[in-house]
Amino acid sequence: MTAEPATSRPGRGRRPAAEVRAAVLAAAGAMLLENGLRDITFEKVATRAGASKMTLYKWWPSPGALAFDAYFAATEQTLAFEDTGDLARDLVHQLRAFVGFLTSREHGPVVAELVGAAQSDPDLAAALAERYTLPRRALAVARLRTAKDAGQLRADVDLESVVDQLWGACYHRLLLPARPLDPGFADTLVRNLLPGVSPPH
Question: What is the pLDDT of residues 31-53, one digit of tens each?
Fold first, then answer.
């Protein structure tokens, strides 16, 4: 990756590409949290970051993809899924943390906007799947597979569907807020689901 001429500084020469990219991501991340996805355009971000608009076009296929990269860079978290051997406890712990993330004033509205915008922005949808959705699903499936191997889940249970039923329900309440999304909902999801996927005693 090479720096662009438009990113040079008077008297100091061109900025390294990594520095330019960091400035662009910082600017886009701040704008995203300040005013939401509607404020993210290549022109506005380039102006705020002191970068060339053509650089942004070269590095990101769409403003939505840039917004996601900026958000991911600002909020990247360890995706560790605790394994204590107690599946119910681990699921409740993970879902409660997830609900807390989705309902925070800082993150919830941005996640909802990104998910909504991804429906009409293929580049954003691809970034969301590759960098966020699929890695999180893989970790959840891996934990559920460990439970299945330990005899805590029925052998015929489709693990991907279990992920949809638990985490998908949280996204449903985030995007269609007819009912509250709170820690108690996480407890209810696990309590309702586990008996149906557990082997008979």
Answer: 988 888 888 999 999 999 999 99
Taking the mean position of all CA atoms in its chain, how far away is CA 99?
13
The per-residue b/e assignment along 153-189, b for 16 or more CB within 10 angstroms, e otherwise, is beeeeebeebbeebbebbbebbeeeeeebeeebbbeb
- Find residue 190's DSSP bridge partners: none
Q: Which amino acid is at 112?
A: A
For residue range 141-182, what is the model confidence (pLDDT) as tens digits? 999 999 999 999 999 999 999 999 999 999 999 999 999 999
CA distance 186 to 16: 46
* Token code pair at residue 34: 């300040």
pTM, to two decimals:
0.78
102 and 200 Cβ atoms separated by less than 8 Å: no
d(CA 107, CA 91): 21
